[in-house]
Amino acid sequence: MKNENMIEFEYEVSGDLDLNKLWSMYSNVENWKLWDEELERVKLDGDFTENTNGMMYFKNMPPVGIKLFDVTENKEFSTISELSKIAITIVFIHKISETKIFHKVSISSLADTDLSNFKEFEGDLIKSVDKLYEICKK
After folding, report:
1. Which residues contact 100 (CB under 8 A, 6 or more apart)?
2. How many Å apart are CA 83 and CA 19, to the nearest integer?
3. How would you class 130 by CB atoms within 10 Å of its CB: exposed for 0-12, middle for 13-18, buried for 19 or more?
4. Do residues 13 and 35 lie in contact, with contact meaning Cβ atoms separated by under 8 Å?
5. Cα(2)–Cα(18) distance, rounded to whole angstroms?
6. Which residue has the higher pLDDT, 61 or 25?
7. Taking the mean position of all CA atoms in its chain, how far away is CA 136?
8. I need a labelling partner for 37 at 20 to 30 A (CA). Which of 64, 89, 103, 127 fits?
């Protein structure tokens, strides 16, 4: 059995935040493109709840399927994407409070996949959290 190959990035900002506005930036997926400049749109196959599947459409890469999990209103949600053609799993964790936004991305593969191309996710993660903070600060 092969060992898992993984990279992770996380970023957090603190300040006085409008929690209801912040949650609406997450729960209304049409808002995701307002804080993630790489996105064109997101479509869910149901409500913003645990186990809902959907698709993320990007400006410069193919669409990616997502599944929501750990969805708790005004607290957190996560997504998982299985990129089976390249043997990669991507997990995004989003946690919030009235004073903090925390995002983490984990990219892993059970294959000997080179994950170095995913290092640009770190800069994108920082930009998206900073943008979300600017939109939702009081």
Report:
1. 12, 13, 14, 17
2. 32
3. middle
4. no
5. 45
6. 25
7. 17
8. 89
CA dihedral (25, 96, 88, 114) in degrees, to 10, reads 110
Give the whole-angstrom CA distance, residue 20 versus residue 12.
18
What are the structure tokens assigned to 86, written together? Answer: 């390249």
In percent, the amount of the chain with pLDDT more than 70 equals: 97
Say which amino acid occupies 76.
E
CA quadruple 12, 70, 88, 82: dihedral positive or negative? negative
Question: What is the pTM (predicted TM-score) of this model?
Answer: 0.92
Q: CA dihedral in degrees (134, 98, 25, 63; nearest 10)?
A: 90
How many residues in the chain?
138
Tens digits of per-residue pLDDT, 74-89? 999 999 999 988 889 9
Query: What's the DSSP call for residue 50?
Result: T
Q: Specify the pLDDT at position 63.
A: 94
